[in-house]
Amino acid sequence: MHTRTRYLTQAALIAAIYVALTLLMRIFGLDSGAIQLRLSEALTVLPFFTSAAVPGLTVGCLLANLFVGGAPWDIVFGTLATLLGALGTRALRRSSPYLASIPPIVSNTLIVPWVIRLVYGDASPVPFLMLTVGIGEVLSAGVCGTVLLFALKRCKGIKWA
Description:
Number of helices: 5
Structural class: mainly alpha
Radius of gyration: 15 Å
Order of helices and strands: HHHHH
Number of strands: 0
């Protein structure tokens, strides 16, 4: 397959899977709010393997936030948090795989609580929101993402863009 086609296909598939996983978590009410567990955030380790994951995750987050009815500022800053996390993971691709989930955990833990507070008017203190969002990110990006990363590392023959 042509490299550009592979790149676009991988980015589109990552975006679609991100949206699908977010909508799945929506069924359980865990996709947004002060306590959120987005399994889609496990995909934020994919920039460790391919640069196509950066636009894939960004577009996936943007679409997911649109589909779940996020406020405009949530869509902007939530997507920005995912973009920054993906870029950070991509920058760490030559380091230890154990570090791959750190950038998305940090970016979401620092940005999303402010969105919850300022955009949605949650009266909880920002440090508490950082704790709750951070725990969700550690579980989804940290634990699930690291499991995904090591599972993919074991798969030989995958052609990343």
